[in-house]
């Protein structure tokens, strides 16, 4: 991904058990904070397909981490 990603919206569901992050390129990241670190994130492209490319996943996760740091999420 060549452009800079950031979070454009965030939804908290099930009393914080599920967080849905919407990115500026229309992609989606779903986080389950109570799961282990390896299986915590699920990455989807704008069409709803899972993202398997490691470089794209890293960029998406970095955008989520920046958002969490900015808004002081755990």
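^ Assign residues to that structure.
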């Amino acid at each position: 991904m060549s452009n800079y990603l950031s979070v454009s919206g965030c939804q908290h569901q099930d009393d914080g058990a599920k967080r849905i992050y919407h990115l500026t390129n229309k992609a989606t990241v779903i986080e389950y904070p109570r799961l282990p670190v390896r299986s915590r994130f699920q990455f989807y492209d704008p069409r709803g397909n899972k993202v398997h490319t490691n470089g794209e996943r890293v960029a998406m996760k970095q955008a989520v981490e920046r958002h969490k740091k900015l808004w002081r999420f755990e």
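The chain has one domain: 7-71.
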